[in-house]
Amino acid sequence: MDIASIVKELNLTVACGDEFLSREVTGGYVGDLLSDVMANSQAGYLWITRQTHQNVVAVASLKDLAGIILVQGKGPENDTREKATNEGVPILVTKLSSFETAGKLYKLIV
User: What pLDDT is recorded for position 110?
Assistant: First the structure.
């Protein structure tokens, strides 16, 4: 399933990266500890987190993640949005919790 379909189904807001919504999503990973995400996520995954700082973009780029979903209605910081735009990492926002977002994403892609 591509990111654009997930955005529509989960009613996500696209904070940046509109041009990358055709990327295929192969799974998801939930975590707020950057080292854990680096060690355990896989290329093509959507990363669900509440972290909004620019280091999330560095991790997403390093791991070739499909994108980032920020939960609890928190949008990315300005420097995060700028870095994500420059590195081609779409950032999506939802008001839902990580738990709810992960459950809905799982149902969509499995």
Answer: 87
Scanning the structure block, which residue is given the tokens 């295929």?
24
pTM comes to 0.97
Residue 76: which CATH number? 3.40.1390.20
Which are the contacts of 61, defined by CB distance < 8 A and separation ≥ 6?
A: 87, 88, 89
User: How many domains are contained in the chain?
Assistant: 1
Mean pLDDT of 81-104: 97
Q: E-assigned strands of the chain?
A: 13-16, 27-30, 45-49, 67-70, 91-93
- 54 is in which domain, residue-wise? 3-109
Residue 84 has pLDDT above 90, yes or no: yes
Q: Give residues with Cβ within 8 angstroms of 66, minimum separation 6.
A: 3, 23, 24, 25, 26, 44, 45, 46, 90
Using CA atoms, how far apart are residues 83 and 80, in angstroms rounded to an integer?
5
